[in-house]
Amino acid sequence: MFLKDLCEINGASGNEDRVRSYIQEQLKSPEEPGQVDVLGNLFFEKKGNGTSDKTILLMAHTDEVGLMVTNIQDDGLLAVSPIGGVDPRVLLGKRVWVGENNLPGVIGYKAIHLQKEDFKTLPDWDKVRVDIGAQKKEEAQKSVNLGDYVHFYSPFEEYENRYVGKALDDRAGCALLMALYRELPVLNHRVVFAFVVQEEIGLRGSGSTLKRYKPDAAIVVEGTTAGDNPELKRERWSTHLDNGPAISYLQSGYALDYRLFEAIVAFANQKGILYQLKGRTVGGTDGTRLASTYFGVPCAGVNIPSRYIHSPVSVISKKDFENTKQFIADILTEEILLKALEVKV
Amino acid sequence: MDTFAALKSLSLAYGPPGREKEVRGLFKGYVNGLVDEVFEDTSGNLIVKRYGQHKGTVFFSAHMDEVCFLVSKVLPEGFLRLEGIGADVKLLPSQKVWIHTRSGKRLRGVIGMLAPHLQTEETRKKLNGFEDLFVDVSMSDFSEISVGDFVTYDNEPFSTGDFFFGKSLDDRACGVIIVKMLERLTALRHDFDVFAAFSSREEIGAFGARTAAYALQPDIGIALDVTHAIDTSPNYPKNEFGKGPVIAVGAIPHRKISNLLIETAKQNGIPYQIEPSPSRTGTDTDQIQLETVAAGVVSLPLRYMHTPYEQICVKDIDETARLLALFVSALKEGVV
Known about the structure:
The complex is a heterodimer of chains A (345) and B (336).
Chain A lengths: L1 H7 L8 H11 L7 E2 L5 E5 L8 E7 L4 E7 L5 E6 L11 E4 L4 E6 L20 E3 L5 H5 L7 E4 L4 E2 L3 E4 L2 H16 L6 E7 L11 H6 L3 E4 L2 E3 L20 E3 L1 E2 L2 E2 L2 H14 L4 E2 L8 H7 L6 E9 L6 E4 H16 L2 H6 L4
Parallel strand pairs in A: 3-12, 3-13, 13-19, 14-19, 15-18
Antiparallel strand pairs in A: 1-2, 2-12, 4-5, 4-9, 5-8, 6-7, 6-9, 7-8, 10-11, 11-20, 15-19, 16-17, 19-20
Helix pairs in contact in A: 1-4, 4-8
Chain B lengths: L2 H10 L8 H10 L6 E4 L5 E5 L6 E7 L4 E8 L3 E7 L10 E5 L5 E6 L9 H4 L10 E2 L13 E4 L4 E3 L2 E4 L2 H17 L7 E7 L7 H10 L3 E9 L17 E5 L4 H13 L5 E5 L7 H4 L5 E10 L6 E4 H17 L6
Helix pairs in contact in B: 1-4, 4-8, 6-8
């Protein structure tokens, strides 16, 4: 299963090689072996039948948040810093993978019995230490180097209605694109599937796609924040699991193209598709980069609602995943984006 | 017994205070062939007896129970609120857990945490308490979950080098020491009869050890428990990994017992460490002594106590078992 495999592969920003290789291995054919650019982005092209010279871009990012070893202490413990947005509170007492060889380690924490004033203090990065069982610096240095990546250890689980695992942001998007690449018939126009690097550290990979393919419009697919936690009032939720694909209208750095947005919403209404509008504007996506690079590509966001992202365990709804996939397939087949862009700004 | 395999099974087993059946079953298997009598008492202790020459009795206890949580409320849409015994709430966000329903089902849950994107300046600084934390059980049919169901950590123990990481090594790793001591005793002569309790309900007050000590009335009683490794407090010695068992000296451990343990270690070249214990030890021994027993405590260094990944050094298990077997075999009539 694509999603399970993708979530269990480790690939924090800048270390996406294994994710990319997996996707390429699974999708490649003699006609389309896939293209990799110098940054590590991977592209698969599905040519049109010749009746249209337009190109639609689908995009998901291959990287995940993680940690990097920034110091090896005299006592053998490893200090780490976050790669992307990681809250230190989700790390304590968790198991991790250290380095290229996936050395097991634990983010240990002082026993409750030994805590004094620190019992009431917020754990910060100065307290997050990875223990690989080394008792001295020299011992740790045998198997760990400064700059080694540290990834969450989190076996993927499948339930009747849910998927649970790390990195659903955005391996859920990657798995969805992979499935669409396999399942979509040949359309009138070209479709480019872009699996891009380094989203989590500032949308760094996606821009290069535009130079290569000059798409007319794009859909970015993200495992996006849910926030439907009991502590938040309903009106502060971002999205809600099981309520269908989440369409975004404004996000950090970009108001998504209103023509595409309106057309997608109208299409969903017309077809009677269960969907939701993303209730919060927090978080950027590669859409921001696409809209602000080179000539600026009109961009839409159709997302899979995900709980507890950027932590070792995130949760999505199986139904949402399937519905989002089908919805995007229908948008492409019925050329909703291209029709919308025929309207002049 | 394969120590690593046993530690793994024991770490994964379910056994909050008073619910130690699974752990009891495992130990029953491990002591098979090493003892003359095995029985379970009404407190939930697993008691074993290995007879020597009936010149006296020495008793060991190691507790089977683990720290845990309880469901305090079931919210609609598949969220639970929790209460806890003995665990640090700070370690719970993004922790996977098992919910053990009264009907005997084991369901998975995830302690959710608001993504950084949705945090505010205020929530970023907030120390979560049980009033904030919740378990997401929306992935399971949660209709059978009810208030009072036990909740335990769901994680995967592992070993690296001489170290083993996992939950509930406090105090099941000491249960392994008892088994390994019994293995060694099969090759040694011992005058004393050896009793041992894999005890229940230590984490809420050492009830199990008390009732076992009452029933058995031993001459000598030694609790095997874990102690903090690499505590950086300047007021206590740093118990280190790989440096052998930690022998308690102080008010509750009987001087003769502590001395005899130290002597045995010295004579046999077993490394050992000393832990001063001015008042209560926080182990089963505090209860065992009350039955007018010459008490002792031998501890296994453990780091990250009560967290999902406690750490121990497997070499320390072997050295402690060796010390205890030799200690038992050195006991002579009238020693206390």
